[in-house]
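Task: sequence design from structure.
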């Protein structure tokens, strides 16, 4: 049973079948959500799905990738029938690769760009590579703190991903989970020849959440919760 939650808070549909009913109807509008998990758990697919949900409803979206090249993200999305190229051509989607070694100050300009272009959904995939650029952990933390706060004040709803080695805490740098409004962890367990995937909602500010591990699949339509 979906729980009662504050109805005055505007929600953004995640695009992930089965997720919204566990988080009060969707992500809080303007919130920044951290999605963490080890490699191959489905973070990028979930991000593409969230962006596609916005694009199909006519929203303007931005996908910043530090890891895969834009054409790889486009190819990843197309596997599920999400035609990012079409939306890039029509100006609804900005898909940008940022070289983590040249990421001087990623936060400057980003907030303005989001506001000026009326962008409602933003992805930063993934924050982990920033560790390559900033050698001092305090610099990384400061940069991530600034980045997440800039995203929050931009008014867009954002997902940031972090690749965290298996069973090794929630976030890579230990600041993201506190600054983010929400945290989701994706997990993957392989026993013999079968792989099972679960999603856990660690926090979602101002939202009553359904705790526990929620099994999900990656199927022809992307990520979907088994309970959906
Ligand atoms: N069409 C598909 N059908 C089923 N599963 C798929 C499909 N495409 C990809 N996958 C699964 O999704 C995984 C990749 O997901 P994704 O790229 O979102 O992971 P990730 O968490 O972003 O990993 P990384 O941290 O390395 O970027 C693949 O390893 C595969 O198991
Ligand atoms: Mg990825």
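Answer:
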């Amino acid at each position: 049973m979906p729980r009662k939650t504050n109805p005055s808070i505007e929600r953004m549909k995640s695009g992930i079948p089965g997720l919204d009913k566990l988080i009060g109807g969707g992500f809080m509008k303007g919130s920044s959500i951290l999605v963490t998990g080890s490699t191959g758990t489905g973070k990028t697919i979930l991000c593409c799905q969230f962006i596609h949900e916005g694009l199909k409803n006519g929203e303007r979206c931005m996908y910043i990738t530090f890891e895969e090249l834009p054409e790889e993200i486009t190819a990843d999305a197309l596997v599920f029938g999400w035609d990012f190229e079409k939306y890039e051509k029509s100006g609804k989607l900005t898909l940008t690769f940022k070289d983590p070694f040249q990421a001087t100050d990623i936060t400057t300009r980003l907030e303005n760009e989001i506001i000026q272009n009326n962008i409602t959904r933003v992805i930063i995939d993934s924050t982990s590579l920033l560790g390559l650029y900033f050698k001092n952990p305090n610099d990384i933390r400061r940069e991530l703190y600034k980045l997440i706060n800039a995203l929050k004040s931009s008014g867009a709803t954002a997902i940031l991903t972090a690749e965290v080695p298996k069973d090794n805490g929630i976030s890579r740098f230990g600041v993201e989970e506190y600054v983010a409004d929400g945290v989701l962890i994706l997990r993957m367990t392989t026993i013999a020849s079968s792989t099972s995937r679960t999603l856990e909602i660690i926090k979602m500010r101002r939202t009553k959440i359904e705790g526990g591990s929620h099994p999900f699949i990656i199927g022809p339509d992307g990520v979907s919760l088994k309970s959906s």
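Residues 26-194 form a domain with the Rossmann fold fold (CATH 3.40.50.300).
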